[in-house]
Amino acid sequence: MKEEKTIREGEAAGAAVIPAVNKKALIREWGMKAVFIVAAAIFVVVVAVICIYLFARAVPTIGEIGFVEFVFGGTWNPDVGYYGVGSLIVGTSYATACALVVGVPIGLLVAVFMAFYCPKWLYKIMKPVVNILAGIPSIVYGYFGLVVIVPFVRETFGGGGTSLLATAIVLGIMILPTIISISENALRAVPKSYFEGAVALGATKERAIFRTVFPAAMSGIVTSVILALGRAFGETAAVVLICGNLAKIPDSLLDPIRTLSSNIATELGYSTGLHREALIACAVVLFVFILLITVIVMLLRRKKR
């Protein structure tokens, strides 16, 4: 009888404890949910405020200058009232395209090496190096380009050194970590049976990689290239030191250029009136291009899923 009484008392105590524990867990769960909702709401509000501010300042300015004259005009000279960003868009596009020509082949080949050929001891060295390369501040890349790449271009190819070619080389180096990391992860995500099956059918290792594994990982590889494109397109600190800052469509790789971001960084400090509003409109143009790149990445990821 005493044992039965003890058991009943224990069950009653347990029944009293369980609801209390569940209540505390439920309160904690709702509290964390509220924190997450607030954080997400703050993020959305900040992005919305930035977008509203930029477009509210830029749209009247573009209307005053004229959309065609602003976007397609080839002359940027605020001193005489010319606010055409066409040459800046072309300079930004040229620099980005040339950076991809430099960075994409090297990045993909390094990713293949790290995924299929790299010894474990060397991989333990290369992986942190890639991460360090991604963490180097942009201004350091710009200084490196100014003291190393610019003199190299000037002495080897001629010209002033600060040019489209120097900008492309530095940006190509800057986008390497993005391409290497994402492409390597995409290659490693492909089932090993793809590679092993191709080799079993008589393909060489290189052929199995580039004809079988690469197509299977193409979505991730393209994503890495597009993200690298976005990094190069919006880069400011490094570009402003080495591009030459001449608002003119370049005729060759040795000509100086000016990008949208370097134009804003160069002139925003002393601009006033319509000049300042036009620089904010430049920021909106840059924002729209980056937004398009982000949408393309989202569509690619959705297609991959």
User: Biggest sheet, strands in spatial order?
Assistant: 1-2
Tell me the series of helices and strands, N- to C-terminal: HHEEHHHHHHHHHHH
Q: Give the C-alpha Rg.
A: 27 Å
Helix content: over 70%
Rounded mean pLDDT score: 84
Low-confidence stretches: none
Portion in strands: under 5%
Shape: globular
Largest sheet: 2 strands, antiparallel
CA distance, first residue to last residue = 63 Å
Number of H/I helices: 13
- Helix and strand composition category: mainly alpha
Total beta strand runs: 2
Mind explaining what this structure looks like?
- By secondary structure, the protein is mainly alpha-helical.
- It contains 13 helices and 2 strands; from the N terminus they run ααββααααααααααα.
- Strands 1-2 form a two-stranded antiparallel ribbon.
- The radius of gyration is 27 Å and the shape is globular.
Task: State the gist of this model.
The chain has helices at 2-65, 67-72, 86-117, 120-135, 138-157, 164-174, 176-189, 192-200, 205-216, 218-234, 237-242, 260-267, 273-304, and strands spanning 76-77, 82-83. With 305 residues, the protein is an all-alpha fold.
Keywords:
single chain; 305 residues; mainly alpha; globular
Helix-strand blueprint:
Layout lengths: L1 H64 L1 H6 L3 E2 L4 E2 L2 H32 L2 H16 L2 H20 L6 H11 L1 H14 L2 H9 L4 H12 L1 H17 L2 H6 L17 H8 L5 H32 L1
Antiparallel strand pairs: 1-2
Helix pairs in contact: 1-13, 3-6, 3-7, 3-10, 4-7, 5-6, 7-10, 8-9, 10-13, 12-13
